[in-house]
Design brief:
Blueprint: E1 2-10, E2 13-22, E3 26-36, E4 42-50, E5 53-64, H1 66-73, E6 91-102, E7 108-119, E8 122-133, E9 136-145, E10 148-155, H2 158-165, E11 171-183, E12 188-201, H3 204-210, H4 214-222, E13 225-237, E14 242-250, E15 254-263, E16 268-277, H5 279-282, H6 292-296, E17 306-313, E18 317-322
């Protein structure tokens, strides 16, 4: 069956083109000369069957990515859950070239070039490059390993990238990388996220934690902006959760640590950590040969610190603090720490 001059419109979405369908073999080809997900989109889409799925090619001057990010991957404000990637069992090979790709918070990726193979939630292969404006860029590559694959992401403007994806809007600047090793037999991803020279801006939740220290209050009063030299998060991703095994932030005035769980299936936080005021001075105590381990505590926790917990839904987490913990130096602070309790795993 051949259908020509198709014109479909629902909401802001518009599709115009032709397709061929076989009653036994299914879709044979689709050529849409107009693909519009939002007003102002100018793009074209073509589809062809491959073994186990379909090859999809997208070309265009502009395409709004927000509907796809929101509906298929559950990102962004007001996500409805939509169609999860895990519900798509076929292999989808994407070949995308766009002059402009529109994201959340009025951000744009320029000259997006994407080659990706996806089967359900398994990202089998990806190669992507895009400019984020102002000389900044992001690149993603995957390479096979003996027990799975490794994905590497490099960027020099984390704030714009996170806003583009609709993940988090209050990071300014930041260059770094994400390296994630997939171990197929164990069904886990082990990764490390590194970030340098960035700041958190206008974050009310940070004020809740930091506002219990006098020097921090004065710093917040001057400008609701916290600058950091570096951040590191080691994590393990499983089917139903992300475990933060070690998270450390360092700055001249502020530092901290983080551990715990993000239950992606339940959309719940259970994270605990320590906020360290005056980090540069605090960290000196860790280097003292005799008293460092006693007064400085664990790596990144310093002499003085305030323990906190982040719990509850991903949309509206509950922040808890223990002001009494700042009175206890180093190793003794563990008496006042919150504890993240690991729930039974879903295999």
């Amino acid at each position: 069956t051949e259908l020509s001059q198709i014109s479909l419109a629902f909401g802001d979405v518009v599709l115009k083109g032709d397709l061929k369908y076989d009653s036994d073999a299914g879709l044979q080809s689709a050529e849409f000369s107009q693909l519009q997900l939002s007003p102002g989109d100018v793009a074209q889409l073509s589809m062809a069957p491959i073994e186990g799925g379909y090859a999809v090619k997208v070309r265009g001057d502009q395409l709004d990515l927000k509907p796809m990010l929101k509906r298929f991957f559950g990102l962004g404000e007001g996500s409805t859950g939509g169609v999860s990637a895990t519900q798509v069992k076929q292999t989808i090979v994407l070949d995308v070239q766009l002059k402009q790709a529109l994201g959340f918070y009025k951000t744009t990726a320029f000259n997006l070039d994407l080659d990706m193979s996806l089967r359900g939630s398994d990202l089998q292969r990806v190669s992507m490059q895009a400019n984020l404006g102002g000389g900044n860029s992001v690149s993603v590559t995957t390479n096979p390993t003996p027990d799975g694959k490794v994905m590497s992401v490099a960027f020099n403007d984390a704030g714009t990238l996170l806003r583009l994806l609709g993940v988090y809007a209050r990071v300014e600047g930041g260059e770094g990388s994400l390296v994630m090793n997939t171990i197929k037999q164990q069904k886990v991803d082990a990764g490390q996220f590194l970030l340098r020279n960035f700041a958190l801006i206008d974050e009310e939740n940070v004020v809740q934690i930091l506002g219990n220290h006098r020097d921090s209050k004065e710093m917040i009063a001057r400008a609701n902006k916290l600058s950091f030299r570096s951040g590191k998060v080691d994590f393990v991703r499983r089917k139903d959760r992300v475990e933060v095994t070690d998270g450390v932030l360092t700055g001249d005035t502020v530092g901290g640590t983080l551990r715990g769980f993000i239950y992606t299936d339940q959309r719940q936080y259970d994270l605990t950590g320590t906020y360290v005021p005056l980090f540069g001075l605090n960290s000196i105590f860790q280097k003292l040969p005799l008293f460092g381990p006693l007064l400085g505590g664990r790596d990144g926790e310093g002499l003085l610190g305030v323990t906190f917990a982040v719990r509850g839904s991903l949309d509206k987490p509950d922040f808890q603090i223990n002001p009494a913990s700042i009175l206890m130096p180093g190793a003794f602070r563990s008496l006042f720490e919150y504890r993240a309790k690991e729930q039974p795993r879903v295999e």
